[in-house]
Amino acid sequence: MNNVNYPSVSTTLAIGNIELTNRIVFPAWQVNYANTDGTVSDKLTDFYTAIADGGCGLIFTGVASVSSDSIAFDRVMRIDHDGCVPGLTKLFGEISSRGSVPGIQIAHYGRQAARSVTGHDLLAPSAIPCPVMSQRDPEYVVREMTSGEIARVRNDFIEAAVRAERAGAEVVEVHAAHGYLLSEFLSPYSNHRSDDYGGSPRNRARLIIEIIEGIRERCDIAISVRVSGDEFVEGGLSPPDFAEIIPLLEAAGMDMLNVSAGVYESMERIVPPQSLGDMPHVAIAAGLKRFASVPVCAVGSVFSIYDAESIVVEGKADLGAMGRAQVADPGIVKKSLEGREDDVRACTKCNECMFWTTGDPEMYCSVNPKLKR
Ligand SMILES: Cc1cc2nc3c(=O)[nH]c(=O)nc-3n(C[C@H](O)[C@H](O)[C@H](O)COP(=O)(O)O)c2cc1C
Questions:
Q1: What domain range is 228 assigned to?
Q2: What is the total count of domains within the chain?
Q3: CB of 261 closer than 6 A to ligand 1?
Q4: Does residue 306 carry a catalytic annotation?
Q5: Which end of the chain, C or N, has fewer beta carbons within 10 A?
């Protein structure tokens, strides 16, 4: 039965052939709680089970790295070898036994990886350095991918999805946002190739399309794609560009579109600070929804279930992702649906969680006592 106060956000929703019990999503969060070999630690499992206990409909774990040359930190989740599967199986089991749908975001960091961590030259569609990482990483070297490397990375994504399904994930999210490798291919800002993978929107989307098709061929898992609907950089993607791209992704087999914003050069758009105001990116999601027939998720400073309800009820998106709000209080969904909004521990928007800007080795939250420094 729908909740009287939040009738839209508490409604079920089908993503491909799976059903969510509500429209609240936990978006992928890199927390650096994995073991040093990228396998799931108890700390990582506890982090996600708290959010599942709190009633979130769909939880994206990760980001999980699909290749050994794709990482930027020591303790990122990985899904590039079979040794990751037992830990993931336990994690997804814990999430689904609590009634949430377990998903996983899979990614290659491309030119935003750290060579000092991977020991490999960084791979990108074109040899254009990331202005942020090239300053941060003293060993930074990026080079244009060969067609053989494109084929290898495509296969890494598909194998990662196969492992995710084997471990019990019900949704796999292909990370094509925030300036990582697939986002670099999609954007004319970072893709200057002149072969089949550069130039037209279809060519720039080709690698993502091939990955979706490859996953579809091998798995029954639902497929989400996360994009930056507006990159907020000169010459980058903005909503009208998606008129051509979204139908291509849907034809390949995409079941859900997760709309974020920004790349590293416009970091304030990836995790919007208070100065950008309330829900600054919902209009971007609504703009992309015009081109989509699959469910669309909006994100960015959604700090209450009331806000998420407004997004769904106004038809701007079909789901609302809440990152910082659920980290501050993993119980926010259940408490709000039960009318206990006053018990919610609110996120203060201090952004201390952005550990890569504070120099912390892992993610801390200034208000959640379990995650304090
Ligand atoms: C600590 C931290 C880690 C994040 N890691 C990821 C990630 O791995 N993949 C991703 O797509 N977005 C990542 N994001 C962005 C979030 O998924 C989300 O889009 C962002 O926090 C805005 O949502 P919010 O305002 O509800 O927090 C991260 C954000 C933070 C603060």
A1: 13-371
A2: 1
A3: no
A4: no
A5: N
